[in-house]
Amino acid sequence: MKSRSLFILCTFIILFGINKFSLHKDIHRQNENLTVVNISGKQRMYSQRISKLVLTYNNVNETFFLENTIKLEEILSEFSKAHQLLKSNYFEKYDDFYLKEYFGEIDMFYSNIIKNSRLLIKNQNDKTEINKYINLTLFNTERFLPIMDKIVVRYEEIGRNRGQSILNRELTFNIILAILSIYAVFFVIFPLANAKRE
After folding, report:
1. Which long-range contacts (CB under 8 A, 24 or more apart) does 15-22 make?
2. Beta carbons of 53 and 75 less than 8 angstroms apart
3. What's the pLDDT tens digit per position in 100-121?
């Protein structure tokens, strides 16, 4: 009887520990996934703001031009940081065929947005060059955005799938714990109660 009680107690403790450890790890991963989805959404916003700013380079006075250049440099810096963070997060923590494909496609457009925006700033006094770099930046942004949408959707799908896995695992643990509880009642508690009565 003692060995049976000890077995049930140890099993309860081990299962409870595994469940809590796994749950803590999964919550951490889900929080990371939310951060990645948020950063991906910001990339869309940054690319749209870059497009709006480069368009204003056609009709700006010198003061406005300087303000625009500062804003554009700031957004390009944020855009670049976010892209590197997304890539490092993908390479380190995700092993997903679709994300690999999307990042492979988007890299060229991302690089071209950065390159042409910086060339636009550098060649601010040449009207022909300004028009060229505006058009190139807009061209690459138009191709960047749909792929970025796919990346956002894919990260959301991964998050939902992980959430479903967590729910399934929790259900399995709860069923096992319920079976152990029933076993403890019928094969440990009842026999002990009967032995005391006798």
Report:
1. 15/173, 15/176, 15/177, 15/180, 16/177, 19/169, 19/170, 19/173, 22/169
2. yes
3. 899 999 999 999 999 999 999 8
Residue for token pair 């990371």: 32
Q: Is the dihedral of CA 151, 86, 74, 127 positive or negative?
A: negative
Decide: 19 and 174 in contact? Cβ < 8 Å.
no
Query: How many angstroms separate the CA atoms of 44 and 154, rounded?
Result: 15
What residues have CB less than 8 Å from 30, skipping those under 6 apart?
A: 159, 162, 163, 166
Q: What is the pLDDT of residues 58-97, one digit of tens each?
A: 775 666 677 888 899 999 999 999 999 888 876 667 788 8
Q: Report CA-CA distances (Å) from 76 to 25, 50, 170.
A: 34, 7, 43
Contact 102, 147 (CB under 8 A): yes
Q: How far apart are CA 50 and CA 117, in angstroms?
A: 8
d(Cα 54, Cα 168) in Å, to the nearest integer?
A: 49
Q: Which residue has the tokens 């457009």?
A: 109
Best CA proximity match to 155, nearest among 43, 46, 20? 43
